[in-house]
Specification:
Chain lengths: ~210, ~120
């Protein structure tokens, strides 16, 4: 589905602000400078399932670590943070001040899962919460969850859903010399939520054009 | 001084504890992993200050604050949350909390807590 250029611009600005804040938060957690590449946004819905493959081509193959929260009220949906599992091990080591520990072993401990859950919680709250502030709506959240997925299984899972309305943000964090390419997926669970979002964005566009 | 930190993330518990210990020299810190455990520990220990996360299993932070305030209207509570929504902050400020701090804890935020506590005239170090 194509968004108008102004809608795209509003969404980009909204996510630039929130992803920028996320980078600041991550940098505070690991006490290292983080460079963040400006996100590219793509909208994907269940009518265009054939675009799933190309939409996921930027995300590295293999095992993914997925942190998610659900939100409800005026918009109902789920926000997911997806990064390659091997890169997350490096990030976890930085969180624990264990920079010199190798990241070859990608077996995750309970503490690793706790860190990813909490970091995902902080980042996704920043992204979704700032979206709520920007759109002037209130959202309620569920507890964050962490899962490990194979990329192909994850894609298949999305493809099997009858309806989905997804905003995909492709992001790259560069921490020290480690480049972490991943994505944030905001999946609106109902058509009504998608229409609500579009209505709010349309009103913002109209206000800008007045 | 006695502090109680209630957060379901051990990682956040550790970070919050570390920064608070850097500011408050003589402090006893107790940790709880959810709202229910937090309430039990509150009743048992009667800490001087409580630091509560909002999104937690069993009893969430908002319910825990209500329970503590019902038990002890004078309780002194800071919220440490990832929620950045203005509406949530405004709502929680209606519960008579001392402060709403966004995660993660850092030196500046710990200093804010220190100043707020010392400003209250309750600081001992």
């Amino acid at each position: 589905m194509e968004l108008t250029s102004l809608t795209c611009d509003i969404l980009k600005e909204m996510f630039n602000i929130s992803v920028g804040k996320s980078a600041k938060i991550l940098s505070e957690i690991i006490n290292k400078k983080i460079r963040l590449d400006v996100p590219r946004i793509k909208f994907l819905d269940s009518k265009n399932k054939d675009e799933l493959n190309s939409s996921f081509s930027n995300i590295p193959d293999g095992t993914l670590m997925l942190s998610s929260i659900s939100f409800s009220q005026r918009l109902n949906g789920e926000a997911k943070l997806i990064f390659p599992a091997n890169k997350m091990k490096t990030f976890i080591n930085l969180c624990l001040n264990e920079e010199n520990k190798g990241a070859e072993n990608i077996e995750f401990t309970d503490m690793d899962f706790d860190i990813i859950r909490e970091v995902g919680n902080i980042i996704l709250n920043s992204i979704v919460g700032e979206m709520g502030n920007f759109l002037d709506i209130n959202l309620n959240y569920t507890l964050p969850e962490v899962k490990v997925f194979d990329k192909e299984d994850f894609k298949r899972d999305i493809g099997s859903k009858e309806y989905f309305y997804m905003l995909m943000l492709y992001i790259t964090f560069i921490i020290c010399d480690t480049e972490i390419e991943g994505a944030i997926i905001i999946n609106l669970k109902t058509k009504n939520s998608y229409e609500q979002l579009m209505e709010i964005l349309k009103k913002m566009e109209d206000d800008l054009n007045d | 001084m006695r502090f109680l930190i209630v957060d379901d993330s051990k990682f956040t518990q550790k970070i919050t504890e570390k920064y608070l210990r850097e500011k408050f020299i003589d402090v006893e810190i107790t940790l709880a992993g959810d709202g229910e455990e937090g309430f039990e520990k509150y009743k048992k220990l009667r800490p001087d200050y409580v630091f509560i996360d909002l999104l937690m299993p069993i009893i969430n932070g908002q319910e825990l604050i209500k329970l503590i305030k019902e038990k002890d209207g004078e309780s002194k509570i800071f919220i440490i949350s990832a929620d950045v929504q203005k509406s949530v902050k405004e709502e929680m400020e209606g519960y008579g909390i001392l402060g709403f701090i966004n995660k993660p804890m850092d030196d500046e935020k710990a200093q804010y807590i220190y100043d707020a506590i010392i400003g209250e005239g309750n600081g001992t170090d």
